[in-house]
User: Fold this.
Amino acid sequence: MTDRALLEHISRLPHARANFKQLVRELGAKGTKREELEAALMRLAARGDLIEIRPGHYTVTARSREYAVGRLNTHRDGYGFLISDRPIEGIVGDIFIPPESAERAMHGDRVVVRIVRIESGGRADGEIVKVLKRANPTVVGEFRIGRRGQFVVPQDDRIRRWIEIPEGMET
Assistant:
């Protein structure tokens, strides 16, 4: 079964949700087919097409008003906005991400956000559930050694946290 066919199958289910055991039963996946199903679910989750809401339970992000996938745009004051890959019914503009949640990712990262609240005007708030892909594998900054360890202080104002460098990795 292809990734696309699996995604379409889950999309047809109620609320576009399914669990692993249900999919094994419905698709008759035994032996190597079961392993292929597991690999396909992992690929789809890594791309952001599915989200594993709890172990073994999946939902299609494109059919959900509860989850959104997109690029995080952070502000130097700590908060951010999710620029969604697709328009979401009932939401106008980008999804606001408060500082507590925005610190889990960096500016430009591709993330999955759970929509926490939608106001009557269409504005939405959310929280980061998962980082799918880092935008910057390297960070430019100043290396500092202190009493509590070694850190890089990022040059980019939008990256608010210092990055800890483990002992022996400073070279």
